[in-house]
Design a protein that fits this description.
With about 210 residues, the chain is mainly alpha-helical. The termini are far apart. The strands form 2 sheets. The protein has a 3-stranded parallel beta sheet with strand order 1-3-6. α10 crosses α11. It folds into 2 domains: about 100 residues, 2-enoyl-CoA Hydratase, Chain A, domain 1, CATH 3.90.226.10; about 60 residues, Orthogonal Bundle (Lyase 2-enoyl-coa Hydratase, Chain  A, domain 2), CATH 1.10.12. Helix content is about 50%, strand content about 10%.
């Protein structure tokens, strides 16, 4: 970290053409697109998450923190500004006032306060951290992969959408696709036959 700061102060790129990228990422890496177009992602925070340690996980679907964890948006304290669309995602998670306070004071937030103000969804004892994250991820993973990704896309597009007709159109367009998928047919058949759906098997059969 010290070497990276010194390289920046010397007016040089610390490597991987981060100057040509976004938010300290190498050029060609669209972190937000990778996270929001992927399968569901759950962050497990154990210890301090400061600067990019926070901004990288803000677009995740769920954030779980150990009781000892701390969060800090310390950019102004080191003479820079937030990155990786965090000025959007932090407001979306915490609300206008809390996000402003966190970014403008640059102070560290203990896990309990971060949870109270909406930055993370769960705070658990350190020994239970991974179990809780895996529990949530497993519940998500029980659902069909295609529809999970489509739902994430809708959330990404519609979370800040003020045109409700456009928001509904996106949902309707996605629904029309879903109605034709083997995953939806499997869910309906499972419901009618009072059994648990097997989405992976249905998708595999369709690909054969």
């Amino acid at each position: 970290m010290d070497a990276t700061f010194k390289t920046r102060l010397d007016g040089k790129d610390p490597g991987n053409d981060t100057a040509g990228g976004s938010g300290g990422m190498p050029a060609g890496v669209d972190w937000i697109e990778l996270v929001r177009s992927s399968k569901p992602m759950v962050a497990a925070v154990n210890g301090p998450a400061v600067g990019i340690g926070v901004t990288m996980i803000l677009p995740f679907d769920t954030i779980v923190a150990a009781e000892e964890a701390k969060f800090g948006m310390v950019f102004v304290k080191v003479g820079i500004v937030p990155e990786l669309a965090s000025s959007h995602f932090l407001v979306a998670r915490m609300g206008w006032g809390h996000a402003n306070e966190m970014m403008l004071t640059a102070r560290l937030y203990p896990a309990a306060e971060a949870r109270e103000k909406g930055l993370c969804e769960y705070v658990v004892p350190q020994v239970a951290l991974l179990d809780k994250a895996i529990e949530i991820a497993s519940l998500m993973a029980e659902n069909p992969s295609r529809q999970l990704r489509m739902t994430k896309q809708l959330i990404t597009q519609n979370a800040s959408e003020t045109d409700l007709k456009l928001a509904q159109k996106r949902e309707t367009d996605a629904l029309k696709i879903c109605w034709t998928t083997p995953e939806h047919h499997e869910a309906v058949d499972a419901f009618l036959n009072k059994r648990k759906p097997d989405f992976k098997k249905a998708a595999t059969r369709a690909a054969e």
